[in-house]
Design a protein that fits this description.
The complex is a heterodimer of chains A (224) and B (242).
Chain A lengths: L1 H14 L11 E6 L16 H18 L3 E4 L9 H11 L3 E7 L6 E6 L20 H17 L4 E6 L2 H4 L5 E6 L2 E2 L5 E3 L4 H24 L5
Parallel strand pairs in A: 1-2, 1-3, 3-6, 4-5
Antiparallel strand pairs in A: 4-6, 7-8
Helix pairs in contact in A: 2-6, 4-6
Chain B lengths: L3 H37 L11 E10 L4 E10 L4 H17 L14 E8 L2 E2 L23 E2 L4 E2 L5 H4 L2 E7 L1 H6 L4 H18 L3 E8 L16 E3 L12
Parallel strand pairs in B: 7-8
Antiparallel strand pairs in B: 1-2, 3-7, 4-6, 5-9, 8-9
The chains are: A alpha/beta (224), B alpha+beta (242).
């Protein structure tokens, strides 16, 4: 009797369609730079960089949450968060994308910075200050995806590599995004930073890029 | 009728006032004499004028995020410290000039001192990083290859005369306070300083920054000033322009 029951259960299990594969976890960390005592740069109309980055982080979080993407932020209010804490939050989240948001009155368009650390193989123990080195190649790939989305949105983009303290300690594909006023080819400003429409375009382009990155992440293994 | 003790008090206060006045007069005379003595000891011979030479300045441009080499003719002293200060002074004067492509207030006086020291070997030096391939974006900013001077090793004695040098650039606090804030603009300033030093003093291979004589976390909130920059890695994105 027992064998019969087991065989029947096995047959019924084989007959059922296979359950759908669980959707891959996809977490984005948004790091609104500065905050609290560290006001960052002073932008036009006496706006502070810390306020701009927080507003952009909130806007981007809403856009991503509406698309079903889990978002972790390093700060949700005007509080001081040191670079070590920012990297700790990102690393605990085990995110598939980390964006450090900045703003400046210098230059034009959007600047994308990946870490300037040399790529290194993933190791069990990595130095805190160079933890990003195992992720640099993926960060560069994500920088390319962000670049394409921003260009498609009609923005001028400058890609570079540099050292940003918090980003260099993050163990996720990480890019620092710095937003400057938009200028035309004659160096005339056509969109200032406190232009709500400009902010919305940037946030929408970044959200589109992260959606694209999620698709890429689904096709390939994200963590080294 | 004024009480006796008040008369005594008044007299004492008057005497004290006169004594303090006399002391002040004496101190003033001494300060005046000291000033005159200082003027007497001033050098009477004119300072030697260094011959004008071509200096290669790596000048940043905010509009496209580039660093281009420009050749300028300026008096360059033989002494390496004075030479380094002269080229950086000219570079920062260009940034402080009206209409500069990378506007930074301050000018030549923003460099308080430059110290040239034997460069320590850096155990954890970051290897060279290749430029990312970029399809459509406008410009690639020159790479910064920073090293982390975790384990400096003292150079051998004979290397001190001909070996590589570490330049310690002491910037003024007013320069850092007035520098425009932003990752791009701050890195352009740091990299152009490093590149200019290396272009004119090839022995300078490493650069560190101080602000008012102290280590500072960032220049204006972004560019990391706590690490040693490898000066030779700042490669101009175009040829030299006179």
């Amino acid at each position: 009797m027992t064998f019969v029951a087991l065989a029947a259960a096995t047959q019924s299990a084989l007959a059922q369609p296979a359950p759908p594969a669980p959707q891959a976890r996809f977490v984005v960390v948004l790091d609104a730079a500065h905050g609290g005592d560290d006001s960052g740069g002073r932008l036009a109309n006496n706006q502070l960089e810390k306020s701009f980055t927080l507003a952009l982080s909130v806007r981007l979080r809403s856009l991503l949450a509406a698309r079903g993407i889990q978002v972790v932020t390093t700060r949700d209010s005007d509080t001081t968060v040191d670079p070590v804490k920012r990297a700790e939050i990102a690393n605990r989240a085990q995110a598939q994308a980390c964006l450090s948001l900045h703003a400046t009155e210098s230059g034009s368009g959007v600047y994308l910075f990946a870490s300037s650390l040399a790529p290194a193989a993933a190791a069990r123990f990595t130095a805190w200050k160079t933890a990003q080195s195992a992720w640099v190649m993926r960060s560069l790939k994500m920088e390319g995806v962000l670049n394409s989305a921003l260009l498609n949105a009609g923005m001028s983009v400058t890609m570079a590599r540099t050292s940003v303290t918090a980003v260099d300690s993050m163990t996720c594909p990480a890019v620092a995004v710095e937003i400057a006023p938009e200028q035309n080819s004659g160096h005339e400003t056509i969109a200032v930073l406190n232009d709500k429409n400009y902010q919305a375009r940037v946030a929408a382009a970044l959200a589109a890029a992260l959606l694209e990155w999620r698709t890429d992440a689904g096709r390939t293994e994200v963590r080294p | 009728m004024i009480p006796r003790h008040q008369k005594i008090l008044f007299t004492l206060l008057l005497l004290a006032s006169l004594a303090m006045g006399a002391a002040l007069w004496h101190l003033r005379e001494r300060a005046h004499q000291r000033l005159l003595a200082g003027q007497d000891s001033a050098p009477t011979s004119a300072p030697a004028v260094a011959p004008a030479e071509q200096a290669a300045l790596l000048v940043a441009n905010d509009s496209d995020g580039s660093i281009l080499t420009q050749l300028h003719s300026l008096p360059l002293p033989e002494d390496p410290n004075a030479r380094a200060r002269a080229v950086l002074g000219k570079l920062l004067d260009l940034y402080a000039a009206p209409g500069a492509a990378h506007p930074v207030p301050g000018g030549a006086s923003s460099v308080a001192q430059i110290f040239l020291l034997p460069a320590p070997e850096i155990a954890g030096a970051t290897p060279a990083v290749a430029k990312p391939k970029i399809a459509d974006s406008r410009v690639v900013v020159n790479l910064s290859r920073e090293s982390r001077a975790n384990s400096p090793v003292s150079p051998p004695q004979d290397a001190r005369q001909t070996g590589p040098l570490l330049a310690v650039v002491n910037l003024t606090g007013s320069f850092a306070a007035s520098h425009p804030s932003g990752i791009e603009t701050e890195m352009l300033t740091v990299l152009s300083i490093c590149g200019t030093l290396h272009a004119n003093l090839p022995r300078v291979t490493q650069v560190r920054f101080l602000v008012d004589g102290h280590e500072r976390a960032t220049l204006a909130g972004h560019a990391d000033l706590t690490r040693t920059y490898l000066a030779g890695d700042v490669v101009p994105s175009d040829g030299a322009q006179p």
